[in-house]
Design a protein that fits this description.
This protein folds into 6 domains: 11-68, Orthogonal Bundle (Helix Hairpins); 91-329, DNA ligase/mRNA capping enzyme (D-amino Acid Aminotransferase, Chain A, domain 1), CATH 3.30.470; 334-440, OB fold (Dihydrolipoamide Acetyltransferase, E2P) (Beta Barrel); 447-519, DNA polymerase, domain 1 (Orthogonal Bundle); 522-606, Orthogonal Bundle (DNA polymerase, domain 1), CATH 1.10.150; 612-715, Rossmann fold. Helix 1 runs antiparallel to helix 2, helix 13 (447-458) packs across helix 14 and helix 17 packs across helix 18 (536-545). The strands form 5 sheets. Strands 12, 13, 14, 15, 16, 17 and 18 form a 7-stranded antiparallel sheet that branches. By secondary structure, it is an alpha+beta fold. The longest helix has 21 residues, at 11-31. The chain starts with 10 loop residues before the first helix and ends with a helix. The radius of gyration is 29 Å and the shape is globular.
Amino acid sequence: MSNVPVPDQEPLKRIAELRSRLRDASDAYYGQDSPILSDADYDAMLRELAALEVDQNLASDPTSPTTTIGAEPSGRFPAVRHSRPMMSLDNVFSPDELDRWFDRVEGSLEGTGPLQDGGPWYVFELKIDGLAISLRYDHGTLVGAATRGNGLVGEDVTANVIEIDAIPKALNREFGGSLPPTLEVRGEIYMSHSAFSDLNERQGRQGLPVFANPRNSAAGSLRQKDPTVTKERQLSFWAYQLVDDEGVVPLSTHYEALALLRGLGFPVNEHVVRFQMRSEARRLLDVWEHERHNLDYDIDGGVIKVDELELRRQLGSTTRAPRWAIAYKFPPEEQQTLLREILVSVGRTGRATPFAVLDPVFVGGSTVSMATLHNEDQVRLKDVRPGDVVIVRKAGDVIPEIVGPVLHYRQDSSRPWSFPTTCPSCSTKLERIEGESDFRCPNRNCPAQVVQRIVQYGSRSALDIEGLGEQRVEQLVEANLVRDPADLYDLTVEVVSGLERFGALSAEQLVMEISRSRTRPLDRVLTGLSIRHVGAVAAATLASRFPRLSEIRYVDEESLLALDGIGETIARSVREYFNDPTNRGLIDRLIDHGVGEYVEESEEAFNSGVGVDLTGVTFVVTGVLESMSRDEAQREIRRRGGKVTSSVSAKTKFVVAGQEPGVSKISKAESLSVSILDETQFLELLRVGVTLAPDRDFGEPEGVSTKSREQSAGQR
């Protein structure tokens, strides 16, 4: 729900209201680790307040949220006065605003001293969504750690910071040479996605509430009274600033300071880039806005800083932020809105999934009106209820989900939501198998299950039948024309065109698309059959050994277990599926229609023992390929016995890089000396194999510029 309307009020009343709400939000965010406003709403309200204060000549008020930093220390820990203020950063939200910042910086520096050709140098850093911390070292030993607090006074959390493995307790003095006796380093404490998942899994096992997001979890973990709790939370750290106001350390640039920090033993983010042209800043921001989900930690933008320390001193600071740095904020992926009701949907396997009906809200690049709640346990752990104001998250292209409630807004009359006892589609009593988290409808003829099984069968990842969306399937099921996937192949143009909203042309197109699906490969068919535990990867593995439906239907469990990647759960599920009498009838009819029996000539040759063997070779495919889709490339690898993973590791043998590959994947591959193939080299490998691969020079993959590779190398 938007919290930033522009009401019809007197300006001074609106200023007072905004100041009050922003102070409450800052206290909740910094002092209680429990935000009551989304970042987007907070930023919008702060910008509105700043504009009103300028109009009313109140911009210099030292008590306004536009001039103050963070929040007052909570009193839970001893207060610590910072040696120099821990300032905030000003924000921009568009390329035009960023250009105006560059104009101000370069205009202020013009004529003030010698600049290198092309203007000042800058440093780009990722904006980590974590908690700022100041570390003090005496003679190379960690002796103090303090939170930002209000920028002048923070909280002493030394005992907890000592328990964070990522923060060095003693510095590498051999690298640092003649460092001053006291050294101050600032950075960001954060919780990785993997640590966050582990934490919430432990919380769930113990019946405790789950945490809303990694940032709040990191802040709450750092501010524990018991340091052993902090240690268990697996916090991480990036160093981003060496505090040296007196110029004691012989450095001239921020980039040199980061290199020194890395040498002293601090973790410094690998995605730091030094540049001079402002177009490079826009390119990097565009790259990371799309690549942010490939990281194991949250970022909400990028930070751009003037590199030369002397130029920084000339530019100076305002009361709350340096003029030599700016934070570019990405569009929000979390927003707040009203949860109107909780309903339950039933999927193709009978799984009953609760979902939230929301007041529409724009988040993650689209308008969201529904969001998944996963299962009963998650609803209980998150304690979300109809009528709550909730935080909605939509990262990239994933399904929107509810992060948690904003308890600040909960009504006293609110009551916990209870899972229904009967199926909302067929009224059959729902069942929950011991040891599972899901309720299921046991009625295979449940209308909702029938519809969803056919939708899955025709989906893009399965038989890819264009025009067979959920509404069309519901119409066919309601007209008693289709009860299972095999019925699709009995449809005629005459019958379909007689339905409402179907013309002769659309009916002909649908029947033609259904007919074309007969020649889809078996892995697509297996994916479309809704066999429990069999997704695209398992289906491809099964089809690589048994390429026809008429073959795999009779394969025993022992033969299935012999396949690499097929465990007992999948093998048992496949065997149970083909043993079921109803399913056997469906399979007979599909085979009669020629479904799952088509094998390409090249695939037939391979499965007969003629072809390239990639058994045990692990690939990562990234970017856009011209000759095939990414799914097709992965299928070709699996069909030859290879493995495909989504992330680069030491086990990865090749990264296949198409146009616009993932920057983080390429950087990781380079750091691990993993071979990077362009599309031509990949196609050659599929043809001749990898016998010569370890000794070959595969050259520069298309779509990865020499410049970007040199920059990546310079960052390590």
